Write a sequence for this structure.
């Protein structure tokens, strides 16, 4: 089990839609969610995924205040507010960030912040025996219009021993 991760909006929302937020607490001892990320992820409060995120964050996550733009750890690369906060907080905490958006991943890597995507998280869960198969979850992500490159889906299935 890894110690700490900072989560961005996209992975939280898709994990909530799949009803698999529990994987975060099974794989990490501490989950930090920047305030801005929580606001973004729960903006449509009536939706079931938003309700799951609210419950999960109240019970299992540490919702942390956003870094101010004048904070030396604040990174401004023109990303959206949630990504900026997630990457900045992960760098400050010297931990990985759970992030899927391509540009954000590039910035995180440039800042020497380890990145774990939702597909990588599912692969870790499969390897740890926390889920029986990954393919159906990848298909469900695609059904939710979550953008995944076909090559990534294929590679993940091969790594999970499902292809």
């Amino acid at each position: 089990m890894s110690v700490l991760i900072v989560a961005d909006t996209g992975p939280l929302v898709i994990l909530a839609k799949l009803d698999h937020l529990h994987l975060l607490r099974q794989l990490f001892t501490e989950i930090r969610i920047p305030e801005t990320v929580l606001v973004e992820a729960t903006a449509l409060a009536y939706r079931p995924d938003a309700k799951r995120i609210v419950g999960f964050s109240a019970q299992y996550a540490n919702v942390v205040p956003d870094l101010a733009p004048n904070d030396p750890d604040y990174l401004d690369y023109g990303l959206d507010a949630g990504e900026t906060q997630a990457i900045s907080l992960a760098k400050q905490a010297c931990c990985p960030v759970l992030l899927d958006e391509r540009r954000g991943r590039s910035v995180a890597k440039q800042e020497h912040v380890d990145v774990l995507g939702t597909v990588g998280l599912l692969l870790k869960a499969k390897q740890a025996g926390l889920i029986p198969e990954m393919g159906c979850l990848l298909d469900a992500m695609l059904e939710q219009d979550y953008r995944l490159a076909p090559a990534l889906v294929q590679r993940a299935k091969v790594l999970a021993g499902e292809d």
Remarks:
- The longest strand covers residues 28-34.
- Residues 2-121 form a domain with the Rossmann fold fold (CATH 3.40.50.1010).
- DSSP finds nine helices and five strands in the chain.
